[in-house]
Design goal:
285 residues; alpha+beta; four-stranded mixed beta sheet; 4 strands
């Protein structure tokens, strides 16, 4: 009992053990108690390009950048890095203006790009890197895809087959004018297009079967009260899309599909294929 109490107290106070030998009690963790983005190990390697995807649960608003700001604070203290916006603006103000401030349509971007300077102790010219931060949002919050990503005919987001899938690392071969069987399977599993509607996102709860996914605002079944109660309880305990808690162990195929589609759309918006350098061909002996 004494050992359990000491372990709990040291973990609660975030006390680290320093020394040449490990202590008798070790705390194993994925690092979330330190910083939740796993950014510091990448900064320590002084990488030129870093992509971070934040899928953690948060309450919205300024909390979208809470984990990022904490990671940057730790990087300044432990790795002596400095950060600034693409145009040289102070990083905290740049995050507020470009990532947290809503536009006239009350919409927010799903990505934020900034720069890092890596400093050494020799006071030489610092190495530089670029960081792309991606945070999925609910369909009623994020900015719609830009005009060049929308069909000029239907004025709707392009279907999955119309995006440059190969640029995102997914190579496909199609016959002219015909979709492959793989395309048809993708449409069934992942939807016709990358962007979700509000109804598709609102209907997702912690329930373990697809039939329980009903939007309490639009459903007209005989158990609307139960449906509404389920949504409220699910939201309170384990969050809402796209911030379901990792404690939710009841992901359905629809929920997996929703997260896949939103992550895909966020990468399209961020133009991740332009941010990452093309892979270098390997030499064969």
């Amino acid at each position: 009992m004494h050992v359990f109490f000491v372990r709990f107290l040291r973990g609660f106070l975030n006390i680290s053990n320093l020394g040449t030998h490990p202590p008798p009690v070790l705390r194993l963790s994925d690092g979330g108690h330190f910083e939740n983005l796993a950014l510091l190990p990448l900064l320590e390697k002084k990488l030129k390009k870093i992509v971070i995807v934040d899928g953690s649960r948060n309450g919205g608003g300024d909390e979208y950048a809470k984990a990022l700001r904490l990671a940057l604070k730790e990087a300044r203290e432990k790795l002596h890095c400095s950060f600034h916006g693409v145009d040289g603006r102070d990083i905290d103000e740049d995050i507020r203006v470009k990532f947290l401030t809503k536009n006239s349509d009350v919409r927010l971007p799903r990505h934020y790009e900034f720069r890092v300077h890596y400093y050494d102790n020799d006071y030489g010219e610092p190495e530089k890197g670029e960081i792309l931060f991606i945070a999925p949002r609910h369909p009623r919050e994020h900015m719609p895809l830009k005009t060049d990503e929308i069909s000029p005919v239907t004025e709707e987001p392009k279907k999955r087959k119309d995006f440059d899938l190969e640029a995102l690392g997914k190579k496909k071969n199609r016959e002219e004018g015909h979709d492959s069987k793989e395309d048809e399977a993708d449409s069934l599993d992942w939807g016709e297009g990358p962007e979700l509607t509000e109804d598709e996102a609102d209907r997702l709860t912690w329930c373990c079967c697809v039939c329980c996914h009903k939007n309490a605002k639009t459903s007209h079944c005989c158990c609307d009260c139960c449906c509404d109660c389920c949504h409220r309880t699910s939201s309170f305990c384990l969050g809402e899309f796209p911030h379901h808690s990792t404690g939710n162990q009841f992901f359905t195929p629809d929920m997996f599909s929703a997260y896949h589609r939103e992550g895909y759309a966020a990468c399209v918006e961020a133009k991740i294929e332009e941010f990452l350098p093309p892979s270098q061909p390997t030499e064969e002996s």
